[in-house]
Specification:
Blueprint lengths: L11 E4 L2 E8 L10 E7 L10 E12 L8 H6 L3 E2 L21 E15 L3 E15 L4 E4 L5 E4 L8 E15 L10 E2 L1
Parallel strand pairs: 5-9
Antiparallel strand pairs: 1-2, 2-3, 3-11, 4-6, 6-7, 7-10, 8-9
Length: 190
């Protein structure tokens, strides 16, 4: 019967999923040299059986919000989306939608996110439900109105805080592929 080299011995060290075993000494080449062989074994047997369904509750994402403005302002002005409310007010242009990027934020709260195994924990279905919230802070006096028709205009009011909020309820569904690492024994021998 073969002896288990990973049994509790003074020449065996367990670090996480690795086992380091001191095999012994090679014959001495000279009086001043001695070589010891160490085998590093990666334990591939999971300590717990992997679940076919795993769930995470209340996941928070924090980030900065920004956008690339590629608006054709002459077309938007002709389509009456951009207005001049009072005579003498400047027209809405590229500078009107400049963001304060340090204060523009994105917060996501995922109520749950779940992974269900479709094929031996290699191919998985991931799905979840959450809230996405964007706060765009402007450095300009731009205002938005929805009535009587959607429009944007440069306001005459000097705002202390000018922000646009957009919020969404989001549902996600994705297919996830998790590549398995092959089991290696005696990865490193010195």
């Amino acid at each position: 019967m073969a002896k288990d080299s990973t049994a509790k011995q003074s020449d065996t060290l367990q670090i996480g999923g690795f086992t380091i075993v001191k095999d012994g000494e090679f014959p001495k080449q000279s009086a001043s040299s001695s070589h010891t062989n160490y085998n590093v074994i990666w334990n591939t047997r999971p300590s717990k059986k992997q679940k076919t369904v795993s769930t995470n509750w209340l996941i928070f994402d924090l980030g900065f919000a920004n956008y690339r403005d590629q608006t054709n302002y002459s077309y938007a002005q002709a389509g009456s989306y951009l207005k001049i409310m009072r005579p003498g007010d400047p027209a809405v242009n590229e500078g009107s939608t400049t963001l304060n990027t340090g204060k523009s934020s994105n917060v996501n709260i995922w109520l749950f996110m779940q992974r269900a195994s479709l094929s031996k924990n290699v191919l998985n279905l991931k799905y979840g439900l959450g809230l996405e919230m964007y706060n765009f802070r402007y450095d300009s006096r731009i205002s938005f109105r929805n009535a009587p028709a959607p429009m944007a205009f440069n306001d005459s009011i000097s705002f202390t805080k000018n922000k646009l909020y957009a919020g969404y309820v989001t549902g996600i569904v994705s297919i996830n592929y998790k590549k398995l690492i092959p089991a290696w024994s005696n990865i490193l021998t010195r």
